[in-house]
Design goal:
Elements: H1 18-22, E1 30-34, E2 42-49, E3 54-59, E4 65-78, E5 81-86, E6 90-93, E7 98-115
Antiparallel strand pairs: 1-2, 2-7, 3-7, 4-5, 4-6, 4-7
């Protein structure tokens, strides 16, 4: 589970610098960084949207999500109405809330953080009926 110091303690490390990844000029849309540390308890993604790019209405039914705008501007549509997004804005999206996102003329880059979903696990079926039965 991740890097450990000689004494077995987890090692703190710099993961990325958002300004270096998002830069001053808008780039192509997509995930430009994500947390990949094995054994982590969180998921995090740095997403960039090109000017005018949109993400349609969607919802996270199980997890709260924290969004931090790191550059650019845009609008997040919510059930409570549009939320203006600009650098430094932090939004809490409670599980079950719906939203859409539209980047403004400067583009938009934002960091999302939420509890990590457990991976798919292969389990032994203990409730399976006996063979031939």
């Amino acid at each position: 589970m991740g890097d450990a110091a000689a004494d077995g303690q987890p090692v703190v490390r710099l993961e990325c610098h958002t300004a270096a990844l998002t830069g001053q000029a808008p780039g192509p849309s997509g995930v430009v960084w994500k947390l990949t540390e094995p054994g982590r308890q969180l998921d995090a993604n740095l997403v960039r949207l090109a000017p005018g790019e949109k993400i349609g209405t969607h919802m996270e039914p199980d997890l709260d999500v924290l969004v931090h705008v790191v550059s650019g501007e845009g609008v997040m549509g919510t059930s409570d109405g549009p939320q203006q997004l600009s650098e430094g804005a932090v939004l809490w999206l409670p599980h079950g809330s719906s939203r859409d996102i539209a980047a403004g003329h400067q583009g938009l880059a934002y960091l999302t953080v939420h509890r990590r979903r457990p991976g798919m696990q292969i389990r032994r079926r203990t409730d399976a009926p006996p063979a031939g039965g």
